[in-house]
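re: that chain from earlier
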Amino acid sequence: MEWDKIWAYNKEAIDPTAARYTAIVKETSATIIVTNGPDTLTTEDHPLHQKNETLGVKSIIYGKELLVEEGDAQDIEVGEKVTLMKWGNCTISKKDVDATGKITLTGTIDIEDKDYKKTKKITWIANDPASVFDITLVELDHIITKKKVEDDESVKDIVNMNSRISYTAIAEGNLKQAKRGSIIQLERRGYFFVDKIAEGANLMTLNFIPDGKTTNMSKIKSKLDQKEVSGGKVTDA
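^ sequence. v structure.
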């Protein structure tokens, strides 16, 4: 049986109880300036899971400066209308790219516009230093680089020495309530196991859980090629 089949079954089991949060990769974050956003940060309660009200709610912070994924920002053009999830449609009027490649978009929100059918859906967090915090995201690859080990092969020649990849993301403050050992979803990025809670200088650590998909459904990029990870076969299953 291929791994993608096992992970797809696993997704069905974990999705109904996985609370939804948002995090943006730190080193490649982009910015959207909402010119008609609130001058003072405001909050609004939203369900942690649209289909499971027993998980409770979280307070989403709204402001003029938003952090978004670079992959999303690269794909947005001036004059385009995009949907800021859990807020509304935003029309982009300006796009700047500085010398380092960092993207800043400027736009206006129209909460009266309810036509979301053909718009790009964008995850975001308000750039509020008092609430956002750094987390470590971990993706795990196969330990062995081949599907089948031949009798005359040495394990040391086919072991994957870079099977653990970690990087830093900026998370919404609500994620601090997640418990060690729980499974959550970072919206449009995937499912994660809360491996460690922030303690002292150590960041909260989330381990990526493959869900059987071989390609991303959005412009959010994973560090590992999930087509390669999911293509492995469980020879003893």
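The chain has two domains: 3-20+131-230, 28-126.
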